[in-house]
Design goal:
heterodimer, A: 110 residues, mainly beta, six-stranded mixed β-sheet, three-stranded antiparallel β-sheet, 9 strands, B: 122 residues, seven-stranded mixed β-sheet, four-stranded antiparallel β-sheet, globular
Chain lengths: 110, 122
């Protein structure tokens, strides 16, 4: 199972909005609405921020939103804040019962 | 409050095996699935496999088939991940992560352990 494709880095200024893409195939992202997103700070465990494409767990800011079109899922962050600077990973269920992550995207707040 | 607490860092020689534990609390042990995910230094996350603590059934990533074993001890609410034939490329932080269960599988991880660094070096 190949990793999902994410841009290595994105950046934005405080208050701006950014979007991170996550491209898979018909065997994972394209068929299943089982895409989740995680935020990871250096030296820390990942934290769930979006599940089932667009659902937010309790306690996660509404500035984070998820969507999907075809084989590509996206994470949008509006009103960028310094605390949003982290690495973001997408993850999807894949046909056959496995799971696959994206390579991660480093979000820099300028 | 759900907590996953992992065992401490390990240093192993190439060819050896390592067994990492993940103690779960604050949940119904047999109602959740536990996944293992690893992260090599400076690299991304990699899914290794899953164990259903209720029946002990497992599914492993093809990459680790034959080299990994996930088990559980229901009496202590602990799951284990053992990786054998270690090589330097297995140096990584290993995480356990919980997938909550409802009427159907959800395939996301809402709680993570703190991670266990496994270093493989001669």
């Amino acid at each position: 199972q190949s990793a999902l494709t994410q841009p290595a880095s994105v950046s934005g200024s405080p208050g701006q909005s950014i979007t991170i893409s996550c491209t898979g195939t018909i065997s994972d992202v394209g068929t299943y609405n089982l895409v989740s997103w995680y935020r990871q700070y250096p030296g820390k465990a990942p934290k769930l921020i979006i599940y089932e494409v667009y659902n937010r767990p309790s306690g996660i800011s509404s500035r984070f939103s998820g969507s999907k079109t075809g084989n590509t899922a996206s994470l949008s962050v509006s009103g960028l804040q310094a605390e949003d600077e982290a690495v973001y990973y997408c993850c999807s269920y894949a046909a056959g019962g496995s799971m696959v992550f994206g390579g991660g995207t480093k979000l820099t707040v300028l | 409050q759900v907590q996953l607490v992992q065992s401490g860092a390990e240093v192993k020689k190439p060819g050896a095996s390592v067994k990492v534990s993940c103690l779960t609390s604050g949940n119904t042990f047999t109602n959740d699935y536990i996944h293992w995910v690893r992260q090599a230094p400076g690299q991304g996350l990699e899914w290794m496999g899953i164990i259903n603590p209720s029946g002990g059934t497992t599914r492993y990533s093809q990459k680790f088939q034959g080299r990994v074993a996930m088990t559980r001890d229901t009496s202590t609410s602990t799951v284990y991940m053992e990786l054998g034939s270690l090589r330097s490329e297995d140096t990584a932080v290993y995480y356990c992560a919980r997938e909550p269960i409802t009427m159907e599988r959800l395939y996301y991880f809402d709680y993570w352990g703190q991670g266990t660094l496994v270093t493989v070096s001669s």
